[in-house]
Specification:
The chain is α/β, with parallel strands linked by helices and 240 residues long. The protein has 10 helices and 6 strands. It has a 6-stranded parallel sheet with strand order 2-3-1-4-5-6, with helices on both faces. Helix 10 links the parallel strand 5 and strand 6. Helix 2 packs across helix 5, helix 3 packs antiparallel against helix 5 and helix 7 packs across helix 8. The longest helix has 29 residues. The termini are far apart.
Length: 240
């Protein structure tokens, strides 16, 4: 294990905001990324206990005849009812969190310098408490809607159900150390990401990542002269 430890960076935001693009940029710079959505899919495929709990809650409609999860049916149920979405999270979070924490501990043991945890439900799951820094990505609703439609090949009505099932911008930004506002200029995104990456690396190198954000005076992404320690708001874009 490294004497400097492992810096955990949480990445969160609404669906369609651009988290996956940012994750890819981190991966492209040799930063280890844990994708909570991927972990969730793997857990649901392998955990018979979790699948049984979902059947007990939502009926056998959520499984195929071969006893595998019917994701489309489950999504149809939970994204039309916030209470049911809450129950889904309550059922699945313990299984998913256990696996994510296992993977984080594995990277700590290996001495991995920085680990990014890409988790749409970072706050709801309590995983933000494992993070030294949190990055929130937000974007205009219309842009998110169009991305969801294109990405998931769904109707506008279905895309809006997903958007309306989530929290507003303030929920994601109020506890974040960095707020990335997703625009449509890919060059701005690249420049902002490099700036962010450099600051995170510097914070890791000098060990200040272990301190609360506002005590880490060197962390300042604003080139316009704002006070050190303020939340940084960047322009970011996502490839369609």
């Amino acid at each position: 294990m490294s004497e400097k430890g492992t810096m955990i960076v949480g990445l969160t935001g609404q669906t369609g905001a651009g988290k996956s693009t940012l994750s890819k940029m981190f991966s492209g710079h040799n930063v280890f990324v844990i994708d909570a959505d991927v972990v969730a899919r793997q857990v649901l495929e392998k955990s018979k206990g979790c699948l049984m709990d979902l059947v007990l809650e939502f009926s056998t409609d959520v499984i195929h005849p071969d006893a595998t999860l019917n994701r489309e049916k489950l999504a149809e149920i939970v994204f039309s009812d916030k209470a049911k979405l809450k129950r889904l999270n309550e059922i699945t979070f313990p299984y998913i969190i256990d696996e994510i924490e296992r993977r984080i501990e594995k990277e700590k043991y290996k001495g991995t310098p920085i680990v990014v945890l890409d988790a749409p439900t970072l706050y709801e799951s309590g995983l933000d408490k494992n993070c030294h820094r949190v990055v929130a990505v937000i974007a205009p609703m219309e842009l998110r809607r169009d991305r969801i439609i294109q990405r998931d090949q769904m109707t506008q009505q279905a895309a809006m159900r997903r958007i309306n099932a989530q929290h507003d911008d303030e929920y994601y930004t109020s506890r974040a150390d960095y707020i990335l506002t997703n625009g449509e200029d890919i060059d701005n995104f690249r420049f902002s990401f490099i700036d962010l990456m450099n600051k995170l690396q510097a914070s890791y190198d000098d060990g200040s990542y272990k301190l609360p954000y506002r005590d880490a005076s060197e962390i300042d992404l604003d080139s316009q002269g704002r006070d050190k320690g303020e939340l940084a708001e960047l322009e970011i874009t996502e490839d369609p």
